[in-house]
Amino acid sequence: MSARFVVSKTDGGIPETIQENAEDTENVEIIVEDNKELDGNTNIRNDIFGGVNPEDECHAPLYNKQDEDTTTGTLPLYEGAKMGTLMGVYFPTIQNIFGVILFIRLSWIVGIAGAPEAFLIVLTCCCCTLLTSISMSAIATNGVVPAGGSYFMISRALGPEFGGAVGILFYLGTTFASSMYTLGAIEILLTYIAPGMSLFGDVRSSGGATSSVMLNNMRVYGTILLFLLAAVVFIGVKVVNRCASLFLACVLLSILATYIGFFSVHTRSDTRICMLGDRLLASKAYGHCSKNDTNIKQLFESTSFWNTTCIKDIAGAPGLSSGVFDDNVDSQYLDKGEVYVGQKADNDQEIQSDSKTSFFILLAIFFPSVTGIMAGSNRSGDLKDAQRSIPKGTIAAILTTSTVCILLCLNYFTSFYITLTLITDLTSVLFFAGTIEGALLRDKFGQSIGSVLLVAEIAWPSKWVILIGSLLSTIGAGMQSLTGAPRLLQAISRDNLIPFLNLFSYASKNGEPTRALFLTVAIAEIGILVANLDAVAPIITMFFLMCYGFVNLACVLQSLLQTPNWRPRFQFYHWFASLIGLCLCLTLMFVSSWYYALVALILAAGIYKYIEFQGAKKEWGDGIRGLALSAARYGLLRLEEGAVHTKNWRPQLLVLCKLNEDLKPKTDNLFAFVGQLKAGRGLTIAASVLKGDILERNEEVDVAKACLDQLMKNNKVQGFSKVIVSKEINSGLSFLIQNNGLGGLTANSVLMAWPENWKEKDTWKKFVYTLRVISKRHEALLVAKNLVTYPDNSERLEGTVDVWWVVHDGGMMILLIFLLSQHKVWRQCNLRIFTVAQMQDNSVQMAKDLKTFVYQLRIKADVEVIEMVDTDIEAYTYERTLVMEQRSNMLKQMRLTRKESRKEVQAIVETHHRTKKGHTSTPQPPDTPVPSIQVHTSSSTDTSQQGGGGEPNKEHPSQMNLQRMDNAVKLNKLIKEKSSEAQLVLLNLPPPAKDESGDYHYMEFVEVMTEGLKRVLLVKGSGHEVITIYS
């Protein structure tokens, strides 16, 4: 099958991507045409999409376009040197891995840990990096990878918060790695090559790397070398690559010389060591290895072991055929100052441990030697094709550095150039253990053989091959770290995640991140001033392990979510392997140094919360969003499985807002009140209706929605906004009430403001219609009256919050006052509950039982029972009866036993709807606090009026309305007597009459009933129990 492409001719001829991938384009015909542009405004596109409105167009150029988010606030980006796989990834990676630890610490680790445990240390580190490189290859081949490398991959896979946090730590790890390599180079230079260069005395004196002489020299020479490396990096990446090629050639020769030396050392080595029993002596402690030596006699003749031990002069490197491997199997973990396990040194001429050692400490020290796997990916912005170069170069480098030069064969397999040989580090462990005496292996600085680097001592043909090669290797690795770290910081800065880092997004004319380089050098200087290689290495380990862990996590997440965009070209990965890599990284972090791991995690969490606080408004289609979507889908499906239990019930609010001509709510107080109610952590949907046609008011919908979103944000209300357009307001409100959520996550309560000008333009009709719709949907209703007087979030109220509990409909109002009391605005207010009883009720016992019920609810509130005749609460009679009939259904949903049902609040009310004579007392808990409880008989009642048991009034409607209004006046007078100074009054909202002709009188009734009260919240329950005494 052939393909036909028409492209434009540019100054550069055929586009670079077509040239680069020419080997893959079989049966492809490319036609190059002049005078046609493909920049989004071409003649070709106009011919095809000529009729498309530019505002509706969503087509974007597929190439030659940079992400706007990555260039904000920076100078125009410079297209830097475009490197291939070898120079861009393979050589930097292999040079970082063949670094300081391999040459100056691996033999010491073998001597301390023993061959099996050292083998396990190296194998664990290699498995961790290999699994991470496989995960990184999958992510890198799932799309274009511009500048930023590992940071870019993590941030686009896990989101800006995770990407920024891990990216900063990885940057710090890479920066401190340059310090580690610089210190290693100075240690090799002063200890093994030119000790005469010391400025502060003999560097071979006791104390080793921790002596003040060595530390001061490292600080001075380390600073000089760091500035020299920075100067080379400042010139440009091309110069770095030229130097890297030379350094790498020396490194490879050193590796080859080392392995030849393993097989030939027994034929040419004259390395001799002096053993006094199990004690290894420093070479300068004696002239001749014998008890007759004057220096040895002077040092040890007075010791207790002098007469019982013999002294012997033995070969330090007897060779592979000597059988020394068996002696190096057991571990010898030493404390500081010990010459062997459990024995402290008697003087400074014995080879002794300069620090405490353990399996996990050695693991933390060795791990940085395998952390160069991302040296190439950090240069992703300078690569021609990062998708190809990163996996090929990284995996090839890992396999190369994990092999020895015994069997070399090149194999082209699945587009990777792979060198298949035995594992370098692993075989080095075995060769060290089988070639060199254990005591000499534990001599970290070679003091027993004249302060010679041990690897250099066995190398062929001369030790200078290793000394020069190891020096150039560490210098080159430090240069690669100084090259990658500034580019990583620049990529983070360009994404504008951390505002104060935007300064470092600048690039020079030749494309170098100069400002980021200056900061990197300053931070690296801190590591130089620490001057202790073994102290810097664990810090680097933590930062790199965290980065590797998140790379594996990103691969696991993307693989399991199976998003349509997850289409990596690299197919040799599996989510379970990445999961193993993630677990391995976390395990290594805590077993190597749990306190460093905690510090790294705390730093990452702090950066994460800072980026989140700054509001990183980046939408990169990351896996965390995909995970949230999957979790939301799963949760919604689970919510559909059954009704919400009373213990899990919380107000899910639908907030109905009326907008003014500017498409803004008339007051912010409604949203402030919503925020004060959100102790329940429920759903909030702010909704509004615009009258008209959606085709004409579509833009206004977006403006209104933005206003609602801003108000919710200002008042710290988490939720959603919804604005619809309807030809009739009533129809729109009905639609919002019926369709305001998804599945089980829908609003169960409606909050709206009382229409203060309800007499104008039939506003009262819309309000009562909305009330009826809510009632039909069995949802709760909260109506805020006198909304302009409601407090904002900056106020702190004192006084009382009063509940007038006329209809006991499941504890809705008690739950509301509890939620309000959790907010700082209402926290200082005392809670009072006034419950209305009828004349025939047992009011005294009801007060005691309700007080016990409130105590069992764990709510601190005073309870007071008010007696009124039936006619005074006639407006609530129907609803009270209805609630009694619904009670059995409520309790059935709660799945309570008969005995438990009697303790619910509705049962208490019903029990006392009888004569006082037939009632028995309910026991009261012994430790119940005793608030003030009073029983009142309303002074406004008229004994000549009809009782609650009579027939409904059959008088003329106007006379009936007159009586209802009189009842409203009486109830209002009683409420004002008790709650005139209350900060908030919660009152049951009576239901409207079935006949619409009485709607106007209903509004007047509610208005009169609440007249003179400062703030009123009218509440209508949903008919469900919303609070219970049971845990």
From TrEMBL:
It is a multi-pass membrane protein. InterPro entries: AA-permease/SLC12A_dom, KCL_cotranspt, SLC12_C, SLC12A_fam. Residues 89-271, 351-654 form the Amino acid permease/ SLC12A domain. Keywords: Cell membrane, Chloride, Glycoprotein, Ion transport, Membrane, Phosphoprotein, Potassium, Potassium transport, Symport, Transmembrane, Transmembrane helix, Transport. The keyword Chaperone does not apply. GO terms for molecular function: potassium:chloride symporter activity. It catalyses: K(+)(in) + chloride(in) = K(+)(out) + chloride(out). One of its GO terms (biological process) is cell volume homeostasis. Residues 910-960 are annotated as: Disordered. One of its GO terms (cellular component) is plasma membrane. It is found in: Cell membrane. Residues 670-763, 795-1031 form the SLC12A transporter C-terminal domain. The chain crosses the membrane at residues 89-113, 119-145, 157-174, 180-200, 220-240, 246-265, 357-375, 395-413, 420-441, 461-479, 539-560, 572-589. It comes from the Eukaryota. Belongs to the SLC12A transporter family. K/Cl co-transporter subfamily. NCBIfam families: 2a30 (TIGR00930). This is Solute carrier family 12 member 4 isoform X3. It comes from Paramuricea clavata.
